[in-house]
Design goal:
The chain has one helix at about 10-20, and strands spanning about 25-30, 40-50, 55-60. It is α+β, with helices and mostly antiparallel strands.
Amino acid sequence: MNEITISVKELYQKAKDMMDDGMEFVTLSLFEPDNSAGIPAWVGFVAGSPDLSSGIDYEDIESVEP
């Protein structure tokens, strides 16, 4: 999967939450849908900052139909 379409509102809120928590960088992971189980594609977020020894997992955002 090369791309995913997600809600701008959800993406904005996620970025705001990470910034409010003092995060300085984020790793995005794209996950394929599981059509047989009715699960859409989604993007996962693990954010961090230099003072943390490991990243913090933020709630995923599911894909939307444009």
